[in-house]
From TrEMBL:
Molecular function terms from GO: glycolipid transfer activity
InterPro entries according to UniProt: LPS_export_LptA (IPR052037), OstA-like_N (IPR005653)
Protein name per the record: Organic solvent tolerance-like N-terminal domain-containing protein
Signal peptide: 1-18
Example of a GO biological process term: lipopolysaccharide transport
UniProt xrefs under Pfam families: LptD_N
UniProt cross-references to PANTHER family, sorted A to Z: LIPOPOLYSACCHARIDE EXPORT SYSTEM PROTEIN LPTA
Length: 186
């Protein structure tokens, strides 16, 4: 029996959808935030979205769009950056170029960075599964931080609709640094 050290906690569901807010709007899906202890990342579906990359390749027959080179998605105070982002949409359910794609999943890689407000997450790669409403960030060192509070592991699994998250150590140990000054005063 193998033991995989992990830590369970709640994060804002908007952290999980921060990187895909722009594409969710294209698909007509709505981001849903939940209250949690880590609430810094929030999306506003009513704000304009800007997507930049060095290259965009739309492959409608394969139901995917590939953004490569310095990918940056910004909506309000939320930013996603990565070396590449591939958007897979459901076959026969529109296209990215026409603005009516039904997004199935999104893969990001090459130094993934999510930021909004006081929360940030970094990883080597990530996958957003729109059907299962999950986000998985992976890497040698996956870091989730809010202010001076820092959580480090190798895989962050987030259930986007609830904000429930699990940080795995992958053979090592989960590391946590908590700032006592960050506690709420009653």
């Amino acid at each position: 029996m193998s033991v995989r050290p992990a830590i369970f906690f709640r994060i804002s569901a908007s952290l999980a959808v921060a990187g895909i807010g722009a594409l969710m709007i294209v698909s007509g899906a709505a981001a849903q935030a939940t209250s949690s202890k880590m609430k810094g990342l929030e999306l506003s579906n009513d704000k304009p979205i800007q997507i930049e990359s060095d290259k965009l390749e739309i492959k409608d027959p394969e139901s995917k769009a590939i953004f490569t080179g310095n990918v940056k998605v910004v909506q309000g105070t939320t930013t996603l950056q990565a070396g590449s982002m591939t958007v897979f949409y459901k076959s026969g359910a529109g296209s990215v170029s026409s603005g009516d794609a039904d997004i199935d999943r999104i893969e990001v890689s090459q130094r993934v960075f999510l930021s909004s407000g006081t929360q940030q997450a970094t990883a080597d790669s990530g996958e957003f599964d729109m059907t299962k409403q999950t986000l998985v960030l992976k890497g040698d060192k996956v870091v989730l931080s809010e202010g001076k509070n820092v959580f480090v592991g190798c895989q962050l699994n987030v259930q986007m609709n609830t904000g429930e998250a699990q940080l795995e150590a992958c053979g090592g140990r989960v590391q946590i640094q908590l700032d006592p000054k960050s506690q709420k005063k009653n």
